[in-house]
Amino acid sequence: MPKKNHAGNRFILILLLIAVSFLMVNCSESDVIEIGERMFIGQVNAIYMNADDFLGKTIKLQGILKRGQWEAYGEWFYFVLRYGPGCCGDDGNVGFEVKWSDSQDYPPPESWVEAVGILKSDKVNDSRSYIYLDLISLTVLDKRGEEFVRQ
Description:
By secondary structure, the protein is of the alpha/beta class. It has one domain (32-140): CATH 2.40.50.140. It is 25% helix and 43% strand. The longest helix is centred in the N-terminal third of the chain and has 24 residues, at 6-29.
């Protein structure tokens, strides 16, 4: 009768546990929807057109931090966007409004940032709803990506 190799079985069991651990980590990271540079416009448009399917999901994108003001309310709002084709050439803006749920500071406008946030919906004057990213992080990056995107 052959002798059992307990050390070999333990080694295989340890390898199996390590593999399962990596799978669990990768599964949790795959819950983040990363908007890539190559299909930036298509991915952003898909989220806007199917917003109900994406509400509550974590989204990550890079772009230019822009700041604007609602004159009627006197409030500042922020967007992370890239430029794209528009009605008059390259005047389109593609991206998301971003907000902190608490009172954290924003980097200077025109900074190249990576935004990670939960997609949420809100209403203006209890009528028109809009989507935005409730920020988890907003990090200034040294290296800028493509500011003008076509897809």
